[in-house]
Amino acid sequence: MAEEKVSRRDFLLYAMGGWAAVGLGGVLYAMYKTWEPLPEVKAAGTVRFDLSKVNPGELKVVQWRGKPVFVLRRTPDMDKCENRSIKDEYTVVIGICTHLGCIPNWEPDKKIFKCPCHGGEFNACGVNIFGPPPRPLDIPPFKIEGTTIVLGETGPEYEKMMKG
Q: What cellular-component terms does GO give this entry (predicted)?
């Protein structure tokens, strides 16, 4: 067989094509990395909180995705919460009023959340009972792992609560 010689023009064409392919690969990789969320963002997507740390009648505030989440362990004299209760004793709601986005205050003596802006009131279940709020406080997606609640992940308890 006879050897075929590659002309100088063909060699330069192949070399330029190779460099263009490497450059295109680098650009595509950089684009992919900009679309992928940063590790800090991924980590802020879920928050773990031990429910056993909350005493009866006590309210704890947990930060999730920059929002306050109220974790209230209800006492027997508080309202029963149909389809809004975790383990039949915990209320977990996003602490932002559904009217204008204010942060309600917990008033333990009245056992209500009261919005300071327009006087909206929510019971211990987070259901609107007075004033301008159009709907109950929102429930964040959650998953239960023993006594720990994982905010930001959807579990069977959350799905059941949203259907009911």
A: plasma membrane
Length of the chain: 164
In whole angstroms, what is the distance from residue 1 CA to residue 20 CA? 33
Closest residue by Cα to residue 69 from 161, 149, 159: 149
- 139 Cβ neighbours under 8 A, 6+ residues apart: 84, 92, 93, 94, 126, 158, 161, 162
Whole-model pTM: value is: 0.73
Q: Are residues 83 and 143 in the same domain?
A: yes
Which residue in the block uniquely carries the two structure tokens 């915990």?
90
Q: Are strands 112-114 and 121-122 parallel, antiparallel or unpaired?
A: antiparallel
Same domain, 117 and 86: yes
Give the CATH number for residue 105.
Answer: 2.102.10.10
- Are residue 55 and residue 132 in the same domain, yes or no? yes
User: 95-148 pLDDT, tens per residue?
Assistant: 999 988 899 999 999 999 999 988 899 999 999 999 999 999 999 999 999 999
